[in-house]
Every structure is written in structure tokens, then in C-alpha cells.
Design a protein that fits this description.
Blueprint: E1 2-3, E2 9-10, H1 16-20, H2 23-32, E3 35-38, E4 43-46, H3 49-57, E5 62-63, H4 70-73, H5 90-99, H6 104-109, H7 111-127, E6 132-134, H8 135-140, H9 143-152, H10 156-170, H11 181-203, H12 209-215, E7 217-219, E8 225-227, H13 230-261, H14 263-271, H15 276-286, E9 293-297, E10 301-303, E11 306-308, E12 313-316, H16 318-321, H17 356-373, E13 377-379, E14 385-386, E15 395-397, E16 399-402
Parallel strand pairs: 4-12
Antiparallel strand pairs: 1-2, 3-4, 5-9, 6-16, 7-8, 9-12, 10-11, 13-16, 14-15
Length: 404
């Protein structure tokens, strides 16, 4: 994502500029090219809030069936049977299998376990030094994957491996579109772990999500009712493990930096813990961990005088929509008391994030702990490191020092 010397607008989602700060170019895209076409990579991009929301709701034109990453949408390889890569009716049948786990009542019942896990990792982070630690590397990178893989039924000794494999599979060097050999190997390792776990749980089921998916039945297109096969269950587990690991990790890291940059907002949180939920929503808006998601047009789409032809990859950019001046007043200002409107940070429409309520709970509890245990802190700017990942944005390292 760059602006050339002649002033032409160029959006490159595999560039250092995108990884480090996409928001100035998002602003230009919204104003100058709300339907942007990148000839180099062969995709279109939607950046205005209304267009993003409409596309995410319109699966009949903007389909998920060709994947959610550009490398998938431009490849002839078959798409994995994951729920985020399905359109109705297949999507509806698969989603209902796991939606019960994430109802408000079910998520609320998880809070004691979630608080216990997050507190344990916060204690471990502080125990290393007592006055300094890395908010991401020592804390927020660790607990989300622990929580979701515990729910899935992954043995403790393998839980953090899921995170490490996922990071490798999502990593992209500047200019790299597809997954690296190392990332492919990591994906295979993760898939094998889930496959072996499914085989074991078919013999010895437990009180966990994988065991419940093994027992579940689904109606197929031909009207028959069958159980899920191992590939389908592994796909569910991989998806839930990945989504549960990345989003909260990045949101909590972003929180530390945003509060350091906006001490008056942090003071509001310190003054009243009731401000924490609003802070979570504003962090999600101003720095969405999932910056964009891919869609594939099944028919021509007309927007703003431009035709997106059928069979075109489209990047639907939530990271831009959440800063659209047409919806948000002073959108680049961090304001935890902001009226959020339709926050698209956890998706929208039929593919809205199943685990959004759990992610919000985890983020709230993590910030509550930060409020209690580190009311005064300083971020070491020279140690800040951002991730280079497809779709996902945020920090890999946020070193801080606590003061009294």
C-alpha cells in the first residue's frame, strides 16, 4: 500500500506500509476509489462502511465459497471444508452445530474458567521480573489459545503449539501472497494433531467440543442425516482454535499501546471499571485485529459507477469501514465513550464471529486485570514489533515497565 510520486493511489496488502499503518491509505481509498481495483494482484477492494456491511450481508453476490484469502481465491486448488468458506444452506447447517456453545448464557457460564486462566498467565508474566514484561509475548499471546483449546479438548502439552503453528501459517513477508513452506508444514502439524485427537476421542469421548462434534448429526444435501467426518471435525477445530487465538491476542496488545498514547482514556478506565466494555468496543473499532476478509463475486456488482465483474476476488476491508467519516465523527480519535453503531470488527451478517461474545469477555477480563495490576505503566516504543500476517494486524511485542 503506497502512494506513488505522481500521487497515484496504490493499495498493496502485502507491503510493509500495510503491515505498519494502513489507515492513511484507507482514507484515500474511501474518498478517491471506494471500489478499488488492483491489477497486480487481480482483486477489488471495498472500504466504505456501508459497502462493507452490504457485501458481508449479500452472500448471493459476494460469496465465501472460494475462501477468505487472496491466495485461495486466485488458486485452482480446492477450498477446505471450513464453515467460513461456505454459503447457505451448507453454512447454516454447519453453524448450528457449534452455535450452542457460544450463546450468551453458555459464554457467561465460562467466565470463572476464563478469569482463572487469564489471571494465571498474568501472574506468570509479572513473576518473571515484577516490574516489566511484554504484554503480548508474555501474556496476551498465551491465554486465548489456552482457553479455546481447553474447550476443544486439546491436551495441555499441545495447546501452545497450536498458537505457534498458526503464527507460522499466517506469516507473510512483504510481497508474499501465499503460505510459505514453513507455514504449510505448520498447518500439516496442526492438522495431524487434531486428526489424532479426533481418533482418540472417538474411542474415549470427553466433555469437550470435539467429542460433541463427533456425536453431532447433520442433514446433507440429499436429505440424509449423517455424522461429521474426521476432515469436517478437524476443520471446525482448526478454525475455532485459530480464531480464538489471534483476535484477543492482538486486541489486548493494541489496548496497551492505545492507552499509553491516550492517558486520559486510561484514566477513565482507572476511575470506573464500568468503562472497560466500552473500551473494548473502541479498541476493536479503531484497530480491528481482522483487517479484511475475502469474498468472490458470483455475478456482476455495480457500486459507485464501477462494475466488479463476476468471478472477481474482493477484499472487504473492515479496518477501513471502522474509520469511515461517513459513519463516525473524528474516526481516528480513540474515544471509549463513542457511540459505536454497527461495529464490523467481528464481522457482520451470516459470518459474524461465532466466538465474539467469548472474545469480548476475554478482552474485558484482561483489561480489568491491567487496570488492577498495572495502573501506571510505560510502553517501550523501541521494542514495539508488528506482525506481518495475512488478514490479521497487531503487535507481536509490546514491552512495558510498571511504576508505582
Amino acid at each position: 500500500m503506497t502512494t506513488t510520486e505522481a500521487g497515484a493511489l496504490e493499495f498493496d496488502p502485502f507491503s510493509d506500509v500495510f503491515f505498519n499503518d494502513p489507515y492513511p491509505t484507507y482514507r484515500r481509498l474511501r474518498d478517491e476509489a471506494p471500489v478499488y481495483h488492483n491489477e497486480k494482484y487481480g482483486f477489488y477492494a471495498l472500504t466504505r462502511h456501508q459497502d462493507v456491511a452490504d457485501a458481508l450481508k449479500n452472500h448471493e453476490v459476494f460469496s465465501s465459497s472460494r475462501g477468505v484469502e487472496l491466495s485461495m481465491m486466485t488458486s485452482d486448488e480446492p477450498v477446505p471444508p471450513l464453515i467460513i468458506m461456505m454459503d447457505p444452506p451448507d453454512h447454516n447447517r454447519m453453524r448450528v452445530l457449534v452455535s450452542r456453545v457460544f450463546t450468551p448464557r453458555a459464554v457467561q457460564a465460562l467466565e470463572p474458567m476464563v478469569r482463572e486462566v487469564i489471571t494465571e498467565f498474568f501472574d506468570q508474566a509479572l513473576a518473571k521480573d515484577g516490574t516489566s514484561f511484554d504484554v503480548v509475548h508474555d501474556f496476551s499471546a498465551l491465554f486465548p489459545v489456552e482457553i479455546i483449546t481447553r474447550m476443544l479438548g486439546v491436551p495441555q502439552e499441545h495447546r501452545q503449539n497450536i498458537r505457534l503453528w498458526l503464527d507460522k501459517s499466517l506469516h507473510r513477508e512483504p510481497g508474499q501472497i501465499g503460505i510459505s513452506d514453513e507455514g504449510m508444514a505448520a498447518g500439516i502439524e496442526s492438522g495431524l494433531l487434531y486428526y489424532n485427537l479426533i481418533v482418540e476421542k472417538r474411542k474415549n469421548p470427553g466433555d469437550d467440543m470435539i467429542s460433541r462434534l463427533i456425536a453431532a448429526e447433520i442433514q446433507r444435501d440429499d436429505g440424509t442425516t449423517t455424522q461429521l467426518d474426521d476432515v469436517e471435525i478437524a476443520g471446525f477445530a482448526s478454525l475455532l482454535g485459530g480464531a480464538g487465538a489471534e483476535t484477543v491476542t492482538k486486541l489486548v496488545g493494541n489496548a496497551a499501546v492505545l492507552f499509553a498514547d491516550n492517558p486520559e482514556q486510561w484514566q477513565m478506565v482507572l476511575d470506573d471499571p464500568a468503562n472497560v466494555p466500552g473500551a473494548v468496543e473502541e479498541i476493536l473499532r479503531i484497530h480491528p485485529p481482522a483487517q479484511y476478509i475475502g469474498r468472490y463475486t458470483l455475478s456482476d456488482a455495480e457500486l459507485h459507477g464501477t462494475t466488479i465483474p463476476a468471478q472477481s476476488p474482493v477484499l472487504v476491508i473492515a479496518g477501513s469501514a471502522s474509520r469511515d467519516e461517513r459513519v463516525y465523527e473524528n474516526p481516528d480519535t480513540f474515544d471509549i465513550h463513542r457511540e459505536q453503531g454497527q461495529n464490523v470488527g467481528f464481522g457482520y451478517g451470516i459470518h459474524s464471529c461465532l466466538g465474539a461474545a467469548l472474545a469480548r469477555m476475554e478482552s474485558r477480563i484482561a483489561i480489568e486485570l491491567m487496570r488492577e495490576r498495572m495502573p501506571k505503566f510505560e510502553v517501550h516504543r523501541e521494542g514495539l514489533r508488528r506482525v506481518n500476517m495475512t488478514n490479521v494486524a497487531g503487535f507481536s511485542h509490546v514491552p512495558v515497565t510498571l511504576s508505582s
